[in-house]
Amino acid sequence: MKIEDKNFGPDFKWGVSTAAYQVEGAWYSDGKGKSIWDVFSNTGGNTYKDQNANIACDFYRRYTHDIILMAKLGIPNFRFSLSWSRIIPNGTGKVNPIGIEFYNRVIDFCLEMGIEPWITLYHWDLPHELEKKGGWTNRDIIGWFGDYVALCIRYFGDRVKNWMILNEPMVYTGAGYFLGVHAPGRKGLNSFLAATHHSAMCQSEGGRIVRSLLNDAHIGTTFSCSYIEPFGQSINDGMAAFRVDALLNRLFVEPLAGLGYPVADLKLLQRLEPYIKDGDESKLAFNMDFIGVQNYTREMISHSHFTPLIWAKVIGADKRNVETTDMNWEVYPESMYEMLMKFGKYKNFKEIIVTENGAAFPDILADGKIHDEKRISYLDQYLKQVLRAKNAGVKVNGYFVWSLTDNFEWAEGYKPRFGLVYVDFETQERVIKDSGYWYSNFLTNC
Ligand code: GCO
Is residue 356 annotated as a catalytic residue, yes or no? Predict the structure, then answer.
């Protein structure tokens, strides 16, 4: 079945997503302070081949070129994030006027090119000076973050109406404060629990601040999510999958929805108690205008005696003889339908936007072209599942491809290429892939 954008309705929002640290470069110029990712990726042993994003896609200098590319492809919405330490170098206090000026120019040029900006306030690049004070494990971050949010709305809220508070808190708390494989590289349950509760508090408080300063704002926040299934038929595998679903898919959306943390289904969350102060529970909830669902794959789970607290382990896609992307993520389009049906059940959010979906595959540049059929097939299959969920009644009203250009994929460096546009990181040359033209043709078929 061939689908077209008109199947999704005239008000559906089509776009692409990026993130400051992954594309901007200019990591320490024009007054910008270091972020935890600047420090983490410039510390040997933390990233693939010790790669860093000091230059990345050089978006800081080439933003007009990339926005022109978007306009050329007919992409009407652009999701990008603000670098907190480019705007407030130490995280609190003095503002960097050159940083403000850069984002003013990006916003103004988007609008000039007829492209709607969608801004993520926090996409993992915490100012390093705040991490030195404990970062997300320090409850003071609720105030630090609130001041940063208010400042961004004051500077940019006159032209930007679409705001996302956090990007995937489950990932930056889990990978950055429990496993230590993302910045700031901290490990252990206590740092994870503290970072989790303070992030959940910032998620809702950020929404309240935007709402108080910008009454016509369209406010959301984003969640990573994967369809979780038991690997075996046993009760133990079923219960393990249920616990992993509570951790990976419910931990942050349910307090926001006024349901509290899913403690009944994941006992380890009882250990959040010491971080929860009087009155916090009611503050965790906020009626966002939308929630951003960011789904790529399915995970299969079996019970494990060797992973205390969760008693579960992932059966990797490479062990299951299935089609995978360059991230070793299973290509499983039904995961998108399942996640939209799941998140569509939280009734206090007006709508869902798919704020990220895409695939990394090896791209071969040949005679100036990249014939990335696998990426086209991935996008087409997942879009069909978005339409399936929409037709089943889910209020899903947008889809943003991750990503416009190939970029710095965190600890995996530049190896995984997610872009609709290829980047030669030696020369910074851009080449539109077949998938970029495919998406452009899909969008003009209305
Ligand atoms: C995430 C982040 C993006 C990633 C993308 C591919 O979802 O992890 O928002 O920064 O680059 O998802 O992994």
Answer: yes
Q: Which atom of ligand 1 lies at the shortest distance from residue 409's CA?
A: 11
Question: Is residue 130 in contact with ligand 1, taking CB distance under 6 Å?
Answer: no
171 lines ligand 1 (CB under 6 A): yes
Going by their DSSP bridges, the two strands 77-81 and 116-122 should be labelled as: parallel
Tens-of-pLDDT digits for all 446 residues of the chain? 777 777 999 999 999 999 999 999 999 999 999 999 999 999 999 999 999 999 999 999 999 999 999 999 999 999 999 999 999 999 999 999 999 999 999 999 999 999 999 999 999 999 999 999 999 999 999 999 999 999 999 999 999 999 999 999 999 999 999 999 999 999 999 999 999 999 999 999 999 999 999 999 999 999 999 999 999 999 999 999 999 999 999 999 999 999 999 999 999 999 999 999 999 999 999 999 999 999 999 999 999 999 999 999 999 999 999 999 999 999 999 999 999 999 999 999 999 999 999 999 999 999 999 999 999 999 999 999 999 999 999 999 999 999 999 999 999 999 999 999 999 999 999 999 999 999 999 998 64
Q: What is the torsional sign of CA 190, 260, 251, 205?
A: negative
The model scores a pTM over 0.85: yes
d(CA 401, CA 328) in angstroms, rounded, equals 19
Q: Is 323 a catalytic residue?
A: no
Task: Verify whether ligand 1 is closer than 6 Å to residue 356 (CB atom).
Answer: yes
Distance 401 CA to ligand 1 centre (A): 11
Query: CA 70 from chain center: how many Å?
Result: 20
The CATH code for residues 5-444 is 3.20.20.80
**Selection from 388, 207, 197 nearest residue 291 by Cα:** 207
Q: Is the CB of 411 under 6 A from ligand 1?
A: no
CA distance 177 to 129: 16
